[in-house]
Amino acid sequence: MRVTADQDQCCGSGMCALTAPELFDQREEDGLVVVLQPSPPAALHAAAKEAESLCPSGAIRVLEQDPDDQTADA
Amino acid sequence: MTLTASQTDPPAFPAARGRCPFDPPPAYEDARREAPVCRVRLFDGTPAWMITRHEDVRTVLGDQRFSADASKPGFPFLTEARRTLSMEGQSFVRMDDPEHGRLRRMLTGDFMLKRIEALRPQVQQLAEDLLDRMTADRAEADLVAEFALPLPSLVICLMLGVPYEDHEYFQACSRTFLDNRSTAAQIEQSRRGLLRYLGDLAEKKRRDPDGGIISRLANREGLGPDEVASMSVLLLVAGHETTANMTALSVLALLRNPDQLARLRAEPALIRGAVEELLRYLSIAQAGLVRVATADMTVGGQEIRAGEGVILMINAANRDEEVFPSGGELDVERAARRHVAFGFGVHQCLGQPLARLELQIALEAVLRRLPSLRLAIAFEQVPFKHEMSIYGVHALPVAW
């Protein structure tokens, strides 16, 4: 899984940091989204999807397949 | 009742509530089941689309081709007074990106989770102090006047750097803003007064800065005095009325659902989830959220043309059975976080971390400190805010 966030789209609602604090934080100076774990372990995949779905501005994108993860092919 | 998109005489908006004062007007819930994107008639007879399903509400609020800019042609106004005043002194809630984003981002840091969470001990102390005073020598009080309203007012004053001793003035102005019966002249007077009051305060802080938000805005490059004043008005009004209403209405809803109240008392750790459920169940933004389409769009299978107004019914969407099974019931253990009580899209409530913190603290403190809490008047006598754009109760006489 690959988690990305677009700070230009982010409206700083903090929904991601509230929903999945292991995966997202807010930048100190303006509260915009920071991804803590771009390739989260399987245990956090559901939380990542939930954060994507709850993000009000559509700033968070979750790809099931991590393009950098060579081991994910099967 | 059957509502269809082709109906020639659409029902009037807003509709009245039914028997249960916690439920949305039955007409909105009927619409959600039968015609989730339907025509309604506004106060002056102009038509608008009313949208009631959770998914459709999220779709519209998440798409900036539906504009929040009240100066755009076709923007739906819910009262004559609001239409008259639409263009002047508006804050960024009535703007679109990029202008909206530029101004909002000057505040997102102040309301981020970590910064709000750091206020917890202070807010907790304020709540305990208010309850100390309320219970010192009485066993009966108005919970709105003595607790639900002062708590968020004190907190937002602290954050903004507004003297709390002026609270009667700004609370009265806020009430005028939110009252659907206010005339344009009354709203104008309140708005001008508050803009001047907060503009003067900002000017003082330009000379003599403090650690508050207004001081920081006032001393920021590239932000004019008018922008500082309108942002300050928005923060001050939004910062106390909404949480005050949610607090009092939540206490009342829990008193009317004694099993839920007992559940929450037995397990105070449920408070975070309970607050989300109360936000969902009560959905106090009873006037809905308004937008105007700037392109031809299709929502829920219905075509909406550029220049047509839409009203997003938060309260109906938050009872949508497809997302919240048995949505008409209050269940403090429900996973309710998909609610749209704070809206959705780039305009979603900036102050939501603060609202959550205040509600968690306020409700936990009331339940813990007042174990024999009860209504001091008959339920039928409780004065609900039917005529305000934000729902709540005008007073909540309780005993303990």
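The first helix of chain B runs from residue 26 to 34.
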